[in-house]
Structures are given as structure tokens and as C-alpha cells.
Design goal:
Elements lengths: L2 E13 L4 E14 L5 E8 L10 H7 L3 H7 L3 H11 L4 E4 L3 H14 L9 E4 H9 L10 H7 L12 H15 L9 E3 L3 H8 L3 E2 L24 E3 L4 E3 L2 E8 L5 E11 L2 E10 L9 H10 L1
Helix pairs in contact: 5-7, 6-7
The structure holds zinc ion.
The site of zinc ion has 8 residues, from loops.
Amino acid sequence: MNYIILDLEWNGSYSKSERKFINEIIEFGAVKVDNDFNIIDTFSTLIIPQIGKKICNRVSELTKITNDELKDNGITFQQASEMFTEFSSDCVIMTWGNSDIHALIDNYMYYYNDYHVPFLKKYCDIQKYCEKSMGIYNASQQIGLSTCAEELKVGFSEEEHHRATADAVLSLKCVKKLIDKYHIQDYIEDTDNDDFYHRIKFKAHFITDLNSPEIDKSQLEFNCKLCGGTAKRTSKWKSRNKGFSANFECNDCKRAFIGRVYFKKKYDGIQVNKKVYYKPEPDENTDCESKGNKTGDN
Ligand SMILES: [Zn+2]
């Protein structure tokens, strides 16, 4: 089986007709590798922006791609799509994280009114593969490609980094450091079904209504972290920072604490995150705060 490591560069372009920003793809860079991850072919093209007329400063600083370069050497997204689909026939597509797939979905939706990516039959997120293999996977905090390369002692030049083909090669070098020890097959997904697209397009969000039937009410109970005893709630629930918090008191050791809970709706279900904060013990020598309050009441 052959694999393609694909990297895209894009520009935040404002679409007047859609009234929103679209991550408009301006460069495709890819390497095709064989079963042993040796490079057998490369693909590189610039794309003339059709949604935004100019690339923004941040993108041109990061990528060093200029508007003139795009105008002189670029082709249309539709042309690039046809060429790349031919180049990648029956290969597993790999990208560093799934933001490139999000960009592809947005561009196909814009140009073809169809979010299916024609060359995507089998997909592998190599960021996830690297993180899990390195034992540093954390769904809410992903590492960047250059950090991963440093961790794995893969050399790269900062000059070339952030250009599509160079980043694809860098991703490949990271994979090659791990491939003998960790099976990549387990990370390859079939993408010719709508479940893949629903999953990738699903936007995780916090549930901010405490009465939502999706909330498991038993998650609103807290135990004391200090003695392990049960606790009773001593205030109403308050919405706070996308979560809910309330005061509690331990039934055993009587310590007061704040219980905070977040419910995040993900594609696979609700993720619950609970935290407990203890108030500092009242200091008998410095009770000026309570005295101050009494004075204030007068
Ligand atoms: Zn306790």
C-alpha cells in the first residue's frame, strides 16, 4: 500500500457571498511513499486565491508566499483538485492533525457545494499517531509539528518549515522515527462513509443549561477530596465559565469547598470534568475581614 503525506497552506479569505471567512487553500504539498515509507513521488502546486484577492500579512510572513508568486505560478483550486486526485489514487491520505481536512471540506463546499473530498478514501491523522505512540496524547492539547520533530530529534530548518512540501517531509520524518515500533494500521480510517464527515464536522461544545436532559444529574454530586466523605450542597448552582459551580460542605470533616463541573458535548457523548476548590481555613488571628463587614453593615 502507498501513502501520501499531504500538507496545505491556506489564507483566511472573506467570502462576500457566504458572509464568512473561509480558509482558502493556496498551496498543496505532498509526498507519496511506499509501504516502507520511502519517498517515491512528490506533488507541489500553488493555488490562485479566488475568494480573497490578497493573502493576509500573517500568512505571507509565515509561509513566505507572495501574491505575485501565486499569480505567476498558481493554478485554480479546481485544477489542483483534479491533478491531486489523479496523483493520489488509492493511497492512504495522511495529514498532521485534521485541520487540513477541515480546510478541504470548506473549499470543496465552496467550489462544488459538496463537502466530500474526492481523493479521501482512507485517512490517517499522523499527529494523533505520533502523540499516542510517544505517550503524550491529550485530546484537548495537541503538540505542534516542530515540537514533535524536536522531541523525536528530527532535524529541520525553520526557513523551510511552514511551506507545504517541507512540512509534509517533516511529518514523514517523524512517522519514520516511530513506524518500526508502533503499528500505523490501527490509525487508518475508512472515509467513504458519512460517519467520518459527521464526526470531523461535529463541533464540540459545552452544555450551558443545567436542565438539559443530556446532563447526568448524578454528576452534580460531590465528595470531599480531603476525607472522602459525602458532601451536601449549601448554595444554588451558578453558571460560570461554561460550567456550573456551587458551594459544598463535607458531611464528615465539615470543610467547605466549591464544586465545579463542566459538561462538554462531543461526537461520541458527553465528557464530564469536575473540579474541587477548598477555601482557605479561616485564620483566627486576622479576622479583620469579618470585622470590616460588620462595620460596613452599620
Ligand atoms: Zn471531608
